Amino acid sequence: MGTWALQCLLFLFPMLLPPHGASAGSLHNPGLSECFQVNGADYRGHQNYTGPRGAGRPCLFWDQTQQHSYSSASDPQGRWGLGAHNFCRNPDGDVQPWCYVPETEEGIYWRYCDIPTCHMPGYLGCFVDSGAPPALSGPSGTSTKLTVQVCLRFCRMKGYQLAGVEAGYACFCGSESDLARGRPAPATDCDQICFGHPGQLCGGDGRLGIYEVSVGSCQGNWTAPQGVIYSPDFPDEYGPDRNCSWVLGQMGAVLELTFRLFELADSRDRLELRDASSGNLLRAFDGAHPPPPGPLRLRTAALLLTFRSDARGHAQGFALTYRGLQDTVEDSASAKDSAETTAGDPDGANVSCSPKPGAAQASIGARVFSTVMAISVLLLLILSLLRLLRRRSCLLAPGKGSLALGPSRGPRRSWAVWYRRPRVVALPCPPGDSQAEGPAAGYRPLSASSQSSLRSLISAL
Question: How confident is the model over 142-161, as pLDDT tens digits?
Fold first, then answer.
């Protein structure tokens, strides 16, 4: 297309890239996870096969499974996510989402669903443990009451970064250097139920399910631009008389929080959000006053979260994702929603939702400028293409007989093709064809491979 057109493409290419800071990420990124409970009971995705990406067996629709224990009729309020669809769900608190399938000759009528995006943040995956050397090189132990949190707490007290559960009863501790040399295994290999909890998986036979020990910790100081905070003892129920705190700092001018799970026992179990610098109370939630649905934005440079449970407190707890935003404001709809929820909070909230003067106009101006630039570059590309086409010409001279390229054989005339552009000339003419010799004068022949390609193209016309 020429050097000038190539320069235009290079100029346009950055506009087609994702915005600065966007990345594909991994399943450890909370924004890409569809589950925040260890058994996927909160999965509301659209996988409708028992295997990933359409593999496995198709699921039956939940409104057509009345002959079984679970159907849309048994979930009229939609608490379990059942309905007129065939997406994988976990209505009975099993170890992972599942669905009913057409019954086989062996009498199998349901199967688990292998959903790659349904692994809670903090779960790093299933890994091979051959034992020589062990996949995690730190201390280990066994327990007939093992749960995921029991192992996490054990390794956290030992000062390790990672905890691995294996075979339903074994716990191993390790560091990130162990993970770097680990061998990943299929997710379905970690299929052993924890001895201490029928709704949790604790690795498999020679397979470690590895977690970050920060999951379910009672305190922490987070400075990553985004992440997830779980209630204490998660994924187990939090215990009584818990008093925990977490600090989110160096995130930006605005913090965006989204509660993926919120289940407190009663109003005496309370989560407070305070400005870390001043101590001012921004928001407070309890069993009787849950957080609003959707993102919650707080204008603060550092946030202090405190959680206190009553002596009788026992519940699933909470899981919230956070991310830091730059010194920009949400759109008018978000600002309105935040203002309404703030006004309805009995504890009051020092949440600033007012846009800075000229911020909206600047944002609109930037979008208009980007649009105009993109349209201008596209017009330049079109003009360049037209200019290039005008410098090329292709002439088809009909001859007698069937379509053929190359020297004429026999009394019948063949097609003669000429193609021209600067410094490059196309197909030679059939020898002895007086009609072809005139226009083809001064043309150079194409190579044998180019002739073959052109012959295939014309044959398809």
Answer: 999 999 999 999 999 999 99
* Buried/exposed 145-178: b ≥16 CB within 10 Å, e otherwise: ebbbbbbbbbbbeeebbbbbbbbbbbbbbbeeeb
**40-117: which CATH number, 2.40.20.10, 3.30.980.10, 3.40.50.300, 1.25.40.10?**
2.40.20.10
What is the DSSP secondary structure assignment for residue 443, as one 8-state letter?
A: P
Ranges in the chain annotated CATH 2.40.20.10: 40-117
CA distances to 85, 102, 332, 453 from 156, in Å = 42, 45, 44, 67
The candidate with the shortest Cα–Cα distance to 322, out of 217, 247, 232, 214, is: 247
Q: Would you say 163 and 210 are in contact if contact means Cβ atoms under 8 Å apart?
A: yes
Question: Facing residues of 395 across strands?
Answer: 418
pTM (whole model) above 0.85 = no
Task: Read off the tokens for 423.
Answer: 């410094």
No. of H helices and E strands in the chain?
Answer: 7, 21
- For the 219-325 domain, the top CATH level (class) is mainly beta
Nearest to 215, CA basis, from 37, 34, 32: 37
Chain segment 197-240, per-residue pLDDT in tens: 888 889 999 999 999 998 989 888 888 888 889 999 888 888 88
Mean pLDDT of 291-308: 90
| Long-range contacts formed by 79-86: CB under 8 A, 24+ apart | 81/43, 81/44, 85/48, 85/61, 86/48, 86/58, 86/59, 86/60, 86/61, 86/62
